């Protein structure tokens, strides 16, 4: 039913335009507003229409739609979604919400968000219509949606459409004889990230215009083609990166068909498994027309808002784990995922949903208690210092971390099957693990050497005597020595934190420090996080490798490294570095790197959630920074202490650190 509650904005309209639709929103549609200016509407029944129905909920603009019921909503006519709607399917109890019997139109549904809902059109739906269709509109995002059984296309975007994202979504089983995944044909920008196209004869998808296609899995397409590259004289500008195409029982043609010279594409690291042998053992597609049809290859990717970087193999793993309405996977989605896991031996196109067992039964469940009807469960309100009997407090929370999301938006991000794991908003969880004055009581917070011993990858052996603290400044001194066995040419200093740091689901860390760092050849100081057990993870918060630059690096494997080098001006002066580690999607960690308060880059650590990290400060030499290291007075660009009086004297260089601080947001 309708709840008369105005959700006042906590930010100006200018600031609002830059707010993510929800944490984890990516791509062209990531800034969809989704009802933040409107009212909460609770769906209280499974009726096709009338008060408390889903159809009524989306019939007027500016609403956040939450669910007190789970089950199948059988519809006779298409559902038409208004502007500024947030459909929060994650709030549905029991087996979630399945909408069955006809399709949806989101034409002109500007600034709408659709999450965690299942839409199954079926043979009884309107002939010649799509299960989901958009003919015009802007700023729309779909996340964790399962859509299937379209009569025309299953999910199509055409016409004057701008800034749309489809992420983590299943697009399945367009009904024969048409059996199409869908058209993605607009110049306004469509992002397709981590989706599963499965059991569609053709158009998986058919792309024209501006499109970013990354980390998707396409399975068991038919003779009409897998990915169709334009097939027209209109120009297209497309990224196709890190996707996996897997043949199934119905596959009779290659992954890419019908491309031409008007289709300008950057292609990279896409894989094709045509073996149908029950194993994922495909090969990388050649970057030639023999693999991609007659498209025009461009040398650099288009600068579109990119997703978290995953390999094609990692994309398959993540899709199997969490694609579609994964909070409420029904028997249909479970069977589709099992097909993919068969790697070519199972699958089939259908002309009637009954061939696949139909929509099945969906449990209703019990709604989470919400005494004041503001859409926020009582348990979350109580945990976070709100009043479960005061509906007005859903607008109060605002922070930089959540881009000024209101309490309700933060709660919706967290709500799943229960509230048992919900925690306070992230900024209310800040706990200092290492204070900025920790060097004044060094051995309280820090151990000497590396966690594993005295040596690592370079020309210096770590030694406690080369570590000193004066007035809160840590100094690590690299002293050239000729009394060590190769490859050791120096004694130097290292410390590591006694604590282990683990980013938990929904949490994070802020880690910062200030440095005077040498940058001459052969000097290799670093401030970094390394795996407490095994390897990776590794995050180099700041590393200087003898090139005059500072490096920011994140390792997923030894061959999969995201790295950025920046100029490092005035190395003899103090500079600040900060890394912000945040849960990206329950599995991966997003890392933002800052130099002197200015953001430099964002990188991602795959499956870093739950992995222990050790913080290390060390001054290594040679190795990756070149050799020989500094041994004479000519290295005047580094801080030095001369140990002799001649012009060619051996010198000791230093790496100075202060104000190291570690804040937990778990």
Automatic annotation (TrEMBL):
Domain (GH16) ranges: 427-646
Claim: Metal-binding is one of the keywords in the record: yes
GO molecular function, one term: metal ion binding
Keyword Protein biosynthesis belongs to the record: no
Gene Ontology biological-process entries: carbohydrate metabolic process
Signal peptide start-end: 1-17
Alphabetic keyword roster: Glycoprotein, Lyase, Metal-binding, Signal
Protein name: Pectate lyase C
Organism: Fusarium pseudocircinatum
């Amino acid at each position: 039913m309708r709840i008369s509650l105005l959700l006042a904005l906590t930010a100006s309209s200018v600031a609002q335009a830059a707010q993510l639709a929800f944490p984890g929103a990516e791509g062209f549609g990531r800034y969809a507003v989704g009802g933040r200016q409107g009212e909460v509407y609770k769906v209280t029944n499974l009726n096709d229409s009338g008060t408390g129905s889903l159809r009524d909920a989306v019939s007027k603009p500016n609403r956040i739609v939450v669910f007190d019921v789970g089950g199948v909503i059988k519809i006779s006519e298409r559902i038409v979604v208004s502007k500024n709607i947030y459909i929060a399917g994650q709030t549905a109890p029991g087996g979630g919400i399945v909408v069955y019997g006809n399709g949806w139109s989101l034409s002109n549904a500007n600034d709408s968000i659709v999450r965690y809902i299942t839409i199954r059109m079926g043979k009884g739906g309107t002939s010649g219509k799509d299960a989901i269709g958009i003919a015009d509109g802007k700023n729309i995002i779909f996340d964790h949606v399962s859509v299937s059984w379209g009569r025309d296309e299953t999910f199509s975007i055409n016409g004057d459409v701008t800034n749309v994202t489809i992420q983590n979504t299943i697009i399945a089983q367009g009904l024969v004889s048409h059996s199409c995944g869908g058209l993605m044909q607009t110049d306004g920008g469509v992002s397709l990230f981590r989706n599963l196209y499965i059991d569609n004869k053709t158009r998986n998808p058919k792309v024209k215009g501006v499109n970013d296609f990354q980390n998707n899995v396409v399975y068991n397409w038919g003779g009409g083609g897998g990915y169709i590259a334009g097939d027209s004289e209109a120009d297209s500008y497309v990224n196709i990166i890190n996707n996996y195409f897997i043949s199934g029982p119905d596959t009779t043609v290659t992954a890419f068909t019908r491309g031409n010279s008007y289709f300008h594409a950057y292609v990279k690291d896409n894989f094709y498994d045509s073996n149908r042998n029950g194993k994922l053992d495909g090969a990388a597609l050649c970057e030639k027309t023999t693999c991609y049809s007659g498209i025009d290859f461009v040398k650099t990717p288009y600068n579109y808002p990119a997703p978290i970087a995953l390999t094609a193999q990692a994309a398959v793993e993540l899709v199997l784990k969490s694609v579609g309405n994964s909070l409420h996977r029904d028997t249909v989605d479970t069977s589709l995922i099992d097909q993919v896991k068969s790697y070519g031996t199972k699958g089939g196109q259908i002309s009637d949903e009954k061939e696949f067992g139909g929509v099945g039964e969906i449990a209703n469940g019990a709604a989470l208690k919400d005494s004041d009807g503001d859409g926020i469960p009582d348990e979350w309100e109580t945990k976070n210092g709100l009043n479960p009997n005061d509906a007005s407090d859903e607008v109060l929370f605002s922070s930089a971390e959540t881009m000024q999301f209101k309490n309700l938006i933060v709660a919706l991000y967290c709500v799943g099957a229960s509230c048992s794991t919900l925690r306070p908003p992230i900024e209310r969880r800040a706990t200092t693990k290492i204070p900025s004055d920790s060097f004044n009581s060094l051995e309280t917070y820090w151990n000497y050497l590396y966690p594993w011993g005295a040596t690592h990858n370079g020309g210096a052996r770590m030694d406690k005597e080369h570590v000193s603290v004066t007035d809160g400044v840590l100094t690590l001194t690299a002293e050239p020595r000729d009394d060590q066995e190769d490859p050791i040419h120096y004694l130097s200093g290292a410390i590591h934190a006694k604590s282990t740091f683990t980013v938990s689901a929904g949490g994070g860390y802020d880690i910062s420090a200030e440095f005077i760092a040498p940058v001459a050849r052969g000097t290799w100081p670093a401030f970094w996080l390394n795996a407490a057990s095994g390897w990776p993870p590794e995050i180099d918060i700041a590393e200087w490798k003898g090139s005059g630059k500072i490096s920011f690096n994140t390792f997923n494997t030894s061959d999969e490294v995201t790295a950025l080098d920046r100029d490092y001006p005035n190395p003899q002066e103090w500079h600040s570095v900060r890394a912000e580690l945040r849960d990206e999607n329950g599995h991966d960690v997003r890392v933002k790197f800052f130099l002197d308060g200015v953001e430099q880059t964002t990188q991602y650590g795959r499956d870093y959630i739950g992995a222990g990290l050790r913080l290390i400060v060390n001054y290594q030499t040679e190795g990756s920074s070149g050799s020989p290291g500094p041994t004479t007075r000519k290295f005047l660009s580094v801080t030095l202490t001369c140990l002799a009086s001649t012009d060619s004297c051996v010198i000791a260089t230093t790496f100075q650190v202060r104000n190291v601080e570690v804040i937990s947001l778990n």
